[in-house]
Amino acid sequence: MLKKIVLPDLGEGIDSADVSEILIKPGDTVSVDDIILVLESDKASMEIPSENSGVVKEVFVAMGDEVKTGESLLSIETTSDNKDKPDIQKTEEGPKEVVEKSVKPVEAKQETKPSTDKTFASPGVRRLSRELEIDLSLVGATGEKGRITKEDLHGYIKQKMVQGGSITASSFPKIDFSQWGVVENTPLTKIQKITGERLQQAWQTIPHVTQFDEADISVLNSKRIELKKEGLKKNIKVTFLPFIIKAVVKALKEFPRFNSSLDHLGENLVQKNYFNIGIAVDTPTGLVVPVIKDADNKSVLGLSEELMDISERARTKKLKPEELKGGSFTISSLGGIGGTNFTPIINPPEVAIMGVSKSSWKPLYDYKNKEIIPTFVMPYSLSYDHRVIDGALGASFTTFFSRSLLDVSTFE
User: Fold this and answer.
1) pTM for the whole thing?
2) Topology of 2-116 in CATH?
């Protein structure tokens, strides 16, 4: 028996709805309560179940179509008994029974049997999976009767983030650039590939906020000149970076949220009571981030010596694997190269990173004394995970950090 399924009265003054999903196709076998269509209106999302078992013969609607009450949705060839009075239509093959069948819409929250596409989820979950380009067949279901819940989808996303895998598959179109001129292909190094993947994942999965500020480093510079002479006697190069590390550690102790990480489920904040500072180092093969452990227990000269050591070994590929792990906060310094400000990308699983730019002398007006004072100014940026840190806390951190650079005791 061939039965046509039509759109029923949707209620609540809804005369029509858009087809957001079609879960069957001609030739598919459906069972009673299998979801065949998902409709969306400006008031509700509805799943349309089948009230018959059989084989889908024809689908009369397409994705995005607007369908109205009473409109035919599809036809099903079924052998099940039907008490409705059949309509007899003649075809080239002879008489054939056709029954107009109106199905009852199912609200999104109602539990039904799994659909024929082997997945079952509410329209909201399906819509989110479409937006994120996630195949629901890969998501484990914990809901009643095999339904994929919103929590299941979120758990899948978090798991992929922890595993370092890609949530979606993306690729660039293949382009023959040589059609416009001479080109040369240079393979990326392994470090460049790994770094690129990590940075892309961090940028896509962490809600970055970047705070820009400037710090008066006149006091720091005077202290550096003083220690530079002492360092020369021990063949230790004293730069601005060890002073910055000391001020960062002081700020981390004052604002411990910046020295934390989200756990693997993103539900708890893991507070770290150690201060391991990662330092981004540019090498011929790519960017690496060795970690200075227990930076809070080291002097400026001690930090200077260690920075010289890890920077050299980073460039000569002699760092040990454990020296690249365990960081709680990262500093990326471009002060020796140039630039005014930049947006550093957070180094997961950390929640913040500081980017330091080139310092310069500026004439700053001292309102209290009514005079212009030449000031050595360092521009810097602070990127942080907005899930953990809000803007007010970010501004408080940068303000405290800037003040710490003016306090000689910071560098003791």
Assistant:
1) 0.60
2) OB fold (Dihydrolipoamide Acetyltransferase, E2P) (2.40.50)
